[in-house]
Amino acid sequence: MSLVLDPTAQDLLFREARTANTFAEEPVTEDQVQAIYDLVKYGPTSMNQQPLRIVLVRSVEARERLTEHLSEGNRKKTADAPLVAILAADNEFHEQLPSQFPHFPQAKELFVERETRERSARLNALIQVGYFIIGVRAAGLAAGPMTGFDAEGVNKEFFGDGKHSALVVVNIGKPGENAWFPRSPRLTYNQVVTTV
Amino acid sequence: MSLVLDPTAQDLLFREARTANTFAEEPVTEDQVQAIYDLVKYGPTSMNQQPLRIVLVRSVEARERLTEHLSEGNRKKTADAPLVAILAADNEFHEQLPSQFPHFPQAKELFVERETRERSARLNALIQVGYFIIGVRAAGLAAGPMTGFDAEGVNKEFFGDGKHSALVVVNIGKPGENAWFPRSPRLTYNQVVTTV
């Protein structure tokens, strides 16, 4: 085998891990979320921008406000999940660059234009979404990432400041009964990879 | 500890893994790339879209064509890396949906509009970039992801069909001498995570 990663870890993070559609009642604790963050925060971003922001939707009232903006098919599973997280890009991430990228004090100035900033925030936060999903699995939990929602509605509802863009909503918990659809196929190596 | 993932794997993928800026000469084999793909292909995407495409830039001639479009500071390390991969979104991913999302035969029709398609391709391919970087590390290799390049130039040079959007260029190999800059800080949990 060409991988160094232990096969058990391969299974946990990729091969056996699946998108869950139902969840057990067991809660997801603050400690678990903290452990996930303390792992995935090390994933690299351009100039250490780290634009990903995470809103844990725990209260009944907030959960109701969220589900309203989800597409029909995503509502019930989101209402029932032990934890729901809104993953968003902070379009003002550049404010943190002086402390986060200290060896290049001018970094912040590269992002004075809002369009440049939003594009970079979105790009890097989405890469971080990939890390986060792996992190949820590293905690022995199942993730149910969803893009079927009204992003503008969620932004208004949860980020009134106009400075954040919701990207993905993720249900998190131990899988429940009949949690999985059958595994869908995957593209072959030759369909995805070319050499020049 | 709240994580199930073995601490050695945590170190390999996140805690000890670093963005490499120099590389050893040892080549990255086709077998290694295949093993990486065969792991990360299982990472979830919306409706199993799998829009990520990977171009392995192996020939001297192709490497020269690529480095021309990189920002100054990225050229030398890319010229010297054992392997360079262009990670791109396939904006025509919807053509694969009938085979990749067979239980919903109408899926392809949701993406007849080019703008909707490109937005979804970009979103999901970027999440897959996150998986890919983790996969490179799972193979015991260092990744050096870069966004400092002229994307339009790379698209014209390597994807003449107008159907692909380059997202990230990644140098891959065993780390060389002085491969690391000092680790930059990370945002705290409270700077990133809020609860509602």
Report on the structure:
The structure is a homodimer of 196-residue chains. Chain A has one domain (23-176): NADH Oxidase (3-Layer(aba) Sandwich). Chain A is α+β, with helices and mostly antiparallel strands and 196 residues long. Chain A has a 4-stranded antiparallel β-sheet with strand order 1-2-4-3. Chain A has 8 helices and 5 strands, in the order ααβααβααβαβαβ. In chain A, helix 1 (7-15) crosses helix 6 and helix 2 (30-40) crosses helix 6 (114-138).
Q: Give the CATH class of chain A.
A: Alpha Beta
Beta-strand content estimate of chain A: 15-25%
Oligomer: homodimer
Instruction: Decide which structural class fits the backbone of chain A.
Output: alpha+beta
What is the string of helix and strand elements of chain A?
A: HHEHHEHHEHEHE
Mean pLDDT of chain A: 96
Strand line-up across the major sheet of chain A: 1-2-4-3
Task: Give the second-level CATH assignment, the architecture of chain A.
Answer: 3-Layer(aba) Sandwich
The CATH homologous superfamily of chain A: NADH Oxidase
DSSP helix count of chain A? 8
Q: In which range does the helix fraction of chain A lie?
A: 25-40%
- Characterize the biggest β-sheet of chain A: 4 strands, antiparallel
Low-confidence stretches of chain A: none
Tally the beta strands of chain A. Answer: 5
| CATH topology term of chain A | NADH Oxidase
Q: N-to-C terminal Cα separation of chain A, in Å?
A: 25 Å
